[in-house]
Structure formats: structure tokens, C-alpha cells
Fold each of these.
Amino acid sequence: MSDSGLRWRYREEAPRAPEGRFSLEELIEGPGPIELDIGFGRGLSLFERTAVSPGSRIIGIEVKTKLAYKVNGRLQKHDLQNVAILCGDAREILKRAEPAGSVQQVALHFPDPWWKKRHDKRRVIGEALLTELHRLMKPSGALFIQTDVEHRAEQYVGQLQDTAGFTLASDTGYVDANPFNARSNREKRAIEDGLPVWRILATRD
């Protein structure tokens, strides 16, 4: 298939959220806690998380159509029915999601890979996303963010400090280890290469 044909397939066949308001609880059958994995990339975090928490209902959100399409295919091949993929901008998807207070934990992996000031509007982590996460998360639910860019980590800590409804898990905002035992592909590579990763953990009040 040509490159243009593949791009068409990725765009047309990557799984999307339902139109309008929709229920996170109806995406995956069962009584297990709902988890969000935002920016799962090549999907390692989804596979590792379902291995350590098979009772959870894990919803992965990825803006890149090629990655969402390919990871969804791998999940289907392994018959992992407790994971659902949604392709698109997490900010747009989650503002339509219900019900409030239904999400147990959220992971954001290495977001916002844009450096210039003119790209600030493209940043995922900001008031819009944090507002929706606060609405959707259960009290005491965990919000985990990790990045390999120090000044981005400082920005995220500052945003959480300034956002009502979230409490950082430490005085600095940082934790030493990934609390969910589910590495993203980029985290795994950074660890293997001995590169620093800044990990931030907060709870929803």
C-alpha cells in the first residue's frame, strides 16, 4: 500500500470517541476501576499496566493516528479486552466525557514536545485539561505526569500548585519512581540510556 493509502487507513480506521457526550464507563464492560493513559505512544505502558492490574478498565488516548491505529491492532491481536483506544486530542475528548468522579487514576507520558513560544497553545497540560481531569477523577485519585525536559517539569509543578483541587504528593512535587509500574516506551529508553526523568504525582482533592 502506498504511503498516502496508509495515511488514509490510519486516519479512517483509528478508533475514535463517540460523537457528543459519551460515557467512559460504557467503553469497556465490567466493574473495574477506570484509568486514563494519555499519550501512550507505541503502547508499552498499556501492555505493562494491564499485566499488573488486569481488573482495571484502561482507556488510552493518543493524538497520533498511526500510533493509535497500530497499538489498537496489537491489543486486538492479544485479545486484551480491558483496554480501549481513543484517537484524538485529550482536551477535546475529555470535555465530552462522563460521568464525573469516575476515573481512579491518570498517567500523562512525556507530553508537549514543542519548544517555541508560538506552540504554547498546543500544550496538552494546561487549565483546560486539568479542569476536565478534576471533574472526571474520583476524590483521592492519582494524577501522574512524567517528562525528560526539566523546565517542562517545573512548569507542570507550578500549574498543579496553582490549580485548585489537586495536591502534590511531595513538597517538591516530584517522586522517585513511576507509581503505576507501567513504563512508556520513551521512559524505558531514557532509563536504558541513563537519562533523567522528572516524575510528578498529585492527588485529586
Note: Helices lie at 3-13, 44-52, 65-77, 90-94, 127-136, 150-162, 185-192.
Amino acid sequence: MATSHINPQGRKIILGLSGGVDSAVAALLLKQQGADVQALHMSNWEDDDGYCTAAADLQDARRVCEQIDIPLHHVNFAKQYRDRVFKYFLDEYRAGRTPNPDVLCNREIKFGAFRDYAKRLGGELLATGHYARTGVSAGQVQLMKGADKSKDQSYFLHAVSACALAETIFPLGDLLKADVRRIARDHGLAIHDKKDSTGICFIGERPFREFLATYLPADPGPIRTPEGKEVGRHQGLMYYTLGQRQGLGVGGRQDSGDAPWYVADKILEDNALVVVQGEHPMLYSSSMATSNATWIGKPPEKLSRTGALSCSVKIRYRQPDQACLVRQEGSDLLEVSFAVEQRAVAPGQFAVFYDGDRCLGGAVIDRVFARHEMVRAAI
């Protein structure tokens, strides 16, 4: 599978340039292949509080464009980001779930608002520095994992429409991260050793709870064991995620032994956080229900024909593929059974489905089920 199903030579391509090394090398490679490349730098967050690197990133983008000799456009999508991504982020945390805003950012901003703006600039095609690949089979565009499995970003791209993918080039799809750094260094790009950005863009390097508390005030409640014993107080259910170990404030109890404590459940109606010790069965799920399924093009043929599909799934980024059976329960509702029980499956996160290296699509995790369901019922 090649990096892309599109030959870029002679095409006008609008490339999303972040100011980092990946998008810079993507721009360089496209220009070397004879494309008419123009860069578009997006500003998606406006709060200047010392944590945001937007101003520095714009300056880096300008330096890259000067070195490569390509035009740079700049657009502010902060309003679209707040309306389409950040509002969803807060609503999900308010509901006690754990969202992944990067998936929505790709669908709504990078391949939504950005794509519309690129067309107004006269762009025929889009390009980004994502580690992913595309191809065509039987006339249908396919999204494939990037060659660098440690950097593959197909998980975050699974909700992008097939129409948008059909007009997109991923120049880094066949490269390893080390290759990208080497190309940047060999061509004298000033950002060749710039640190990769990590985490959610609008949070930056600040403590996550500190940021969230600015928008969702503390709402303290009890921390309980599955048996109903109160062992502490939490600051608000939105500040915790399933499987979390750090920051619970319940360690060192004389009656609890040495085993670490983990978040196992959230009881919204009681504003209670449920914790367990060690590798407790409540941390593991044998199946889950998902909603809002989206597919790259048409749903998998076997799922449409038989109502069931054997494939693999990731329930979080960087997780190795897990064998599963997907059953259709409605137009966009799925029941997913794991071949091996999974630890800390978090509602609000995305389940992304694969057939080998091909990304089929994904869905939002709604509920998880396991052998311990009777335990929760008794809490």
C-alpha cells in the first residue's frame, strides 16, 4: 500500500502546517514531488495563559515556509473549535465520561472547517503530517495504518469522511519518525529537533485537573469500595477516569494493606467514586456497547450482510489491536465482545475497528459489561 492513492505532481495542495517537524517535512516532500504547495496554519485556541504555544508555533511555521519557499496562510478557527469540539469535551466530562477531543478536532476542524477554507484558497487537495496512509479498493477509499506503528494516527482519523480522505495526501505514511527527523536535519530545517506536542492542544503542559476546574467546578462526594464502605472523598467525578491510580488520596490506610487503589466505577446518581485494590475483576470488561458508529465509506460488507463481524479493536490510542466480535444492534449501535477481557474500558472514549492494517471506522463507547455486573448492582 503506497502512502497515498494520489499523485501530487502539478496539483495545488493546501497543507496544514502546525510549526512542528512532521508537517514541515510533509511540505518539503510534496514540493520535491512537484506539487504546488501552500501552507495553512490554524489557530484553534485563543487563551494566552502561559501554557499555550500558539504564538511560538506560528513563528516556527513562518520560518519553515521561508526555508522551503512556499506561501503561508493563517486562519483562526477558535470559534469553530469551541462550538464543535470544546463544548463536546466539557459536556462529556460533565456526564462523568472520558472524551477524546482529538478525534472530533480531526473530523470537525482539520478535515471540516480547514477543508472548506482550503477550497476557498483554490486548493485541489489537502495534506497533513499525520502518520497514516490511504488507498483505493473496488472504487472505495481506504484508511490504512502508518508504517511507523509507534506513531500511527489512524485511530484519531477514523471519523473523517471518506470524501475528505479521498482528497487528502499523507506524505509521512510510509516513513518512520526517525526518518522524518533525519530529513528535516539533512535539509537544514530549523525545527528538526523541536519537541513533539503531547496531550490535548488546549491544555498544554498544565495539570489537567487545574484546567478542568476552571470550567467544571469541584463537586465533592464519597469514595467507596464495592461493598459500600467509604474510604475517602473525591473532588468531582469529572476529575477521574476508570483505571486511574494516582491522586485518589486513599493510600496508606491502616486497614487496606499494601495493594494500590484504582478507580473502578462512577455512580453519577450518588456522586460516588468506586475504588478497588489490586487487579480486581471490576477493572475488567468482557464486552461493551457503542453508539454513533461511523465507517470509512460503507459499513463492512460482512457486518451488513450477517449482522456480525470478526475484526480487531483499539479502545485507546497506542493499545495493541484486540480481537473482537462486533454485532449490529441498530443503525449505529454495536455490541462488541472481546476475545480477552480488557482493562479500564472508559465510556466516552472511542472504539476503533481494524482489519489488519485497514481502519474500518469506529464508535463511541457507551457502556461496559463484565462478570462483575452483579457487584455493581449491589452497591
Note: Residues 218-278 form a domain with the SH3 type barrels. fold (CATH 2.30.30.280).
Amino acid sequence: MENSLLEICCFNLESALIASDSGADRVELCADPSGGGTTPPLGLIKAVRRKITIELYPIIRIRGGDFLFSEEEFEVMLHDIESCKSAGCDGVVIGMLLPDGRIDKLHSSMLVERAYPMGVTFHRAFDWTRNPFESLEDIIDIGCERILTSGQQPTAILGSALIKDLVKQAAGRILIMPGSGVRASNIADLRRQTGAHEFHSSARIHKKSGMHFIQHSMQEDQESVMADRHEIEQMLIQLSR
């Protein structure tokens, strides 16, 4: 059986260290979990790069919301890719769409070209495309090495039938990586149902603040999103069977 790999989506330095120490194969580094993940600050990227030896792929997404970006936003993403390259990252994660729901091949190709020789993952913008099979071929043409997808459903388990079809169509030309709602309780079933060999999970839990003093007149939640070491270890156990 082909070896399976686990990528952990991390939103802070501590989570990246947990992912690395727990045996994960790759970190996707993001900011703003409530916004679906945006480009992390360069200081964080550099700190994570210094601290972990597994693969590091920051997301290149200037803002939350849709995946239709202006020329000005695109220019920022080009510069962010250069920063990731200079920081010694192994790859980046991108995704751009046209107004009609097709892949923005022109701009995405330019991002891939700017990233070289780093690897490039096309993120879940894929799940908002109008035709996943056409989009798969477009992303292969662009030169990405994998697609992160939940099978155009809220979770990868719900989208497993489409993911299976995408794996079959890809036929080894590109990796299809299920993500969204992937946990130790379902990762083995997901591998069996889809035929995929790379999996993406945030393994997230909420960590309470260590503050002893809380100003109760302020309502902002001070919990942080953190990777769960036990959950990662259990997923890896499931993938090793």
C-alpha cells in the first residue's frame, strides 16, 4: 500500500511545533482561521521555518471572502511568494478564480512561475468552481502539484464520491488531497472511499487564555485555535494501518 501523508493547517507557531513533533509531514501555515485562512505575517513564517524541519507551505491569500482578486491584490500575492521563497519555504498554497467560476489560469500560472522551484498546492478555491473536472485539468496545466478539496461539499466525507472521481481522473498527474472535517475518526474511511494518499486537517481545538485577570466589561473571546497533539497522533496511527 502506498504511504499516506498528513498535512496540518496551523495558525500559530505553537501549533506548527506540535504538528512537527507529532510526526506530521507538512504544515500549511495560515492566519485568520475565522476568515478561512489568509497569508501569515512574514515574521511568523520565518519563525516557523527556523523551528521545524518538515515541509512548510504558507497560504498566499491576501484576504478572506471570495477568490476573485484585483490586479493590486495579485501584485501583493506575487511579493508574498517572493518572501516565502526568501524565507526558505518548501512551497505555497494558492487559488484564483474568474467571475464565471472557472480557474483563473493566467494569474495562477504567474503565481506558480514566481514560486518556482517551490511546490504549489491549489487550495479549496477549487470547491467553488463550476466544473470540478474541467478545473482539475486547468490546474494540471498551470503546474500545481496537488489540489486541496472537500469534494465541493462542506466536509471531505460528504464530498468523498467526487473526490474518488477526481483521484481517478487525475491518474497520478496531480495529487488530490482531501481536507475539511478530516479527523482520526474518519481518515481511514476517507482513504478507503477515495483512494487518496495525502490528507489535510487542522486537528483544531480551542485553547483557553492563560490570563489570570479578565476584564469582564470586554466581550472579545480570548481563546486561541490550537493543533491537538493527540488528534494528530491518532490520525497518523490510522494512516499507518
Note: The longest helix spans residues 71-86.
Amino acid sequence: MSLAKHISTATTPRSIDWILFLAVLPIVAAGLVTMYSFEKQVPVPCEEQEVATAETLPVTICTTQAPASANPYFSKQLVWLLLSCAAFFAGSFIDWRFLRRSDVLFGLFLGGCLLLLILFLLGTTRGIHGWLNFGLFSVQPVEPVKLILILVLAKYFSRRHIEIAHIRHILVSGIYAFILFVLVLLQPDFGGALVIACLWFGMVMLSGISKKHLMTVALIGAISGLFLWSFVFKDYQKQRLVTFLHPLTDIRGSGYNAYQSMIAVGSGELFGKGVGYGTQSRLQFLPEYETDFVFAAFAEEWGFMGVIVIFICYGVIIWRILRNALHGLSNFEILYGLGLAILIMSQFLIHIGMNIGLLPVTGITLPFMSYGGTNMLVLFAGFGILMGMRRYRRTAHKEEMQNEFVGVTTE
């Protein structure tokens, strides 16, 4: 009997996790406010004019006029937010069980690899092949690739939960991640490659790896790191890692951004300087305040109390993802939800770490808060998939639901 007969095709308000959705909105709003607070305050070159009067010598005055639309980040991010919400609700209407099919996931994986190859050949922004430009907007292909990797690993481990003790499954799953890791690193996008590595390692850990194999994986990671340092990393990437150990030794060079970020976070103190009064960002001492250092810009304006509120919202998001994941119909849904939580947590921890000087600057944005339409759209779409899986988690027939779990056989 088809499993679809036991599933309602109608999406109701109860099928949406409104706590999860509402927990995201304050973070998005914080990012929009941070972008908007600097939109009208972008410094422009001063125009000097000589004004002569009848009683005095000519006097040089300075007139500064900010363009009406000096910073388009706010308006563009608002458009992406609307598209992302549409993707979230649209995803909740879809029956995502077709993603369990190996041919579908293999096709998605090949498509992701092809997209990264096209990106390497055609895309370029700010010195890296990170974006594909379509005129009115640009997309960052590495973001959907992260979601594809989560689905592929969830499928692979869902049928091998008991066999995960065999190291061959760790190595085979590692091949999938390593292919994407290399393709992203070639951009070169070290931050994106680091997130892919975190995704693989986190999902392997949650799949039940043994301590012996954990040591093996750590050894492989150490050897890989040595290889990357010797033959792959560029000079500026090595310098970033060196600066991580001694960030104050090169304040005027590679350690400048990290140093200014630490100043911005610390200067916010308890209640912040107020919206629009963040001097480090407003005076452009802090670069990329809308992306790589949006947390520092926010912390400067809102202070420790504002940061606590944002952290609570992220905590609620992770809690709701895990709660939905652990009530999944099968191991595939469970592992997908866990992978989604790992994705958000890894980007959150790396971004916060590099903003407060604990981790090297890798260009990782803060989920939902940093400017970047592709990242927001993919994460909301990922939540939409989770909501789609939530619809049929409790309506399936008991026997069919049991057969979906690994380790349950009918022989």
C-alpha cells in the first residue's frame, strides 16, 4: 500500500512551526536595522569651496552631501526576505519523500558539482570566483551545495546506522564531502570549504562513529591540513591563520579587520551606542559591516543586552530544528534536521568567533543577519523542507513507519 494514502496533502497552520519562524524574524530585523542605520550615513568625499565676503578674506568651506541611495543593502535584503518567506511556505506544501531516492540525490550532487565548476570558470567577485552575476542580482552557488550535501549524507547514513562502525562508510561519505570541499576551495573560498568540512564531521559524529575511528578521522584531518598548508593555501590565507595566533602583531596589515572588529564589539559595552551611532562602522574603520562583520556592527550599536537577545533567538531556532528532527518519520528526516542544525551552528560559531578575535577571518556570514540573499533563501528553503517533512511525520501507518527505520527488518 502506498504511503501517500496515509498522508494529508493539505498544509494547515498547525503544520508550520511558528515558533521557529518567529524566532528567525528578530534576527533578520536586527540585520536590516544595522544595514539601514548606515544607509544614510555613508561618508562621501568633501567638496571644498571658496566663499568670499566683503569684510573678510576668502574662506574655504566644506560641504558634504550623501547620495540619496548610497547603500542599497537594506532594500535588496528586504526583497530577498520576501522571496525567502515565499520559499519557506511553498516548501511546506511539498511532499519531500522523493528526496529519499538515490537517483534524485545523485542527480542533485552532480548538479552541485557542475554548478561549482561553472562558478570557477565564469564567476568572479572581490578576487574570488564566489558569485554568478545575472545582472540585477548575483547568486552564491556554494550555499545550495551545502544543503545538497546535508541531503546526500542524510540519505547515506540513514540506511547504514548499524554499519556505521565500519570505517569504509566514513571514508565513502568523506569522498562526497571532499569533492565539494575541493571545488569550493578552488574558488578560493576557505570559509565555504570550512563549513562543508564541519557539516561532514558533525553528521559523521551524530551517526554513531566509534572513538577509534574518531582518532583515525582526526589523523586524516591533520594530514590533510598539512597538505593544504603546503600545497593549496595561498599566502593571504596562511597569513590569516598566522594572525589568528598573534592578532595584534600585524594591526596595520592582515590583523587590521580582526582588531577593528574587537574594538567595535567591546565599545558597545552593556547597552550599546545606539542605532546609527556605531563609530567603527559609520566611520568605515570596520570593513564589510553588512556581511563578514555584521555581528560587530550590531554589538557596537546594541551592546551586550542586544547580543543576548540575538543569542536567545538562535538558541530557540536550534531547539526547534532539533525538536522537529527528532520527531521525524525516519532516520533520513532525523539526520536532515540534525544536518540543518549543524549548518546554522557552524556558521554562527565561526562568524562570532572571528568577530571577537577567537577565530581567523574566513568570510563566513552570520545566518539570517548578514547581507546575502542566496544564504537567506537557501536557509529558509531548508526550513521549508523541514516543515514539509513535519506534515507527514505523525500520519503514516505504524508498520510502514517502522520499516523506514534502519535496523528494523521483516525477515
Note: Residues 265 and 296 are 5 Å apart (CA to CA).
